[in-house]
Amino acid sequence: MPTSTEVAPTEAAQSAQSAHEAGATPHEAEKLSHAESGLDSVRRALRLVTALQQGEVLAVKQASELLGVAPASAHRLLTTLKLEGFAAQTGDRRYRAGARLSPLTPQAMTREDFKATVWPVITDLQEATGETIHVWARQGSVLHLVSAMRGSATGSVPHDALRRIPAYTTASGRALLAELPNEKVQDIHKRGFLPWRDAKITSLSALKRRLSSIRREGFETTVEEAMQGTSGLGICIHDPWNRPVLGVGLAVPNRRFARADVSRLHDVLEDARRRAEKELTRLYVERQFFGAE
Fold first, then answer.
1. Which parts of the chain fold into alpha helices (H)?
2. Which residues have CB under 8 Å from 256's CB, separation 6+?
3. How many CA atoms does the CB half-sphere of 57 hold within 13 Å?
4. What's the gap between Cα 112 and its chain centre?
5. Whole-angstrom distance between the N-terminal and C-terminal Cα of the chain?
6. In 3D, which of 284, 272, 180, 157 has the Cα closest to residue 226?
7. Which domains are seen in the chain, by residue range?
8. Does the predicted TM-score (pTM) go above 0.90?
9. 44 — alpha (psi -120 to 50), left (phi > 0) or beta?
10. What are the tens digits of pLDDT across the range 85-127?
């Protein structure tokens, strides 16, 4: 019986030993060992692919425990799956199913797609909250306004005051940045932050700490950062291939923004996110499998 310090032999080692006992030459046994070692890697990769396809989101440690291998080996397999499109890495360094595990062919979201799927959800969100809604797309470290709707409540935040803004200064911008690995966040800010008068985050380390919190919570809040007198919440919307495509921000005047309201507003935003992602998936499924436009 093996002691706690012994490691069970791999299938490759067992096969090589069996070949040796069966009378194979050392050279033949070595060739068989290499072949079996390759099969071990294939089997492990297939186990990871199966787990990802079933909806699991894996950290390297979880993958190593699933496979019974060292974390370094699990990391190499996950990296390979990512490079081949079978896995995608989330902002918190975990891995989920990549585009090649989706039955849908990846495609870019057009403005017509947005109007047909996301915009009705944004309209309902504005009616439910009475507040101004901004929808942003990220390009590098900058957000570009896709669309906006002014709130119906008295004294609502202007919806068209900004067309471009540094992502690190807004709730929806940081929600989008949180989808990136920290290495990518650092890369797009390698020349420093774009200056913004009311920015409260002034260093890359502070931004990374904030993004870690967003990855845990799933949303972000701001208090008088992007615009004076304005606070709000932001979330990220994904397409069916788990790509972060839009940031949605709820802008509230400071005088009626209370911390006690954050949970309620987040629930409304989260419901909008689920609906938008569901509608995007429905559109692409109908287009690919039924030829609907």
1. 11-21, 26-53, 60-67, 71-83, 111-129, 171-177, 182-188, 204-217, 262-290
2. 153
3. 8
4. 24
5. 65
6. 157
7. 11-101 (1.10.10.10), 111-290 (3.30.450.40)
8. no
9. alpha
10. 889 887 677 898 888 888 888 889 999 999 999 999 999 999 9
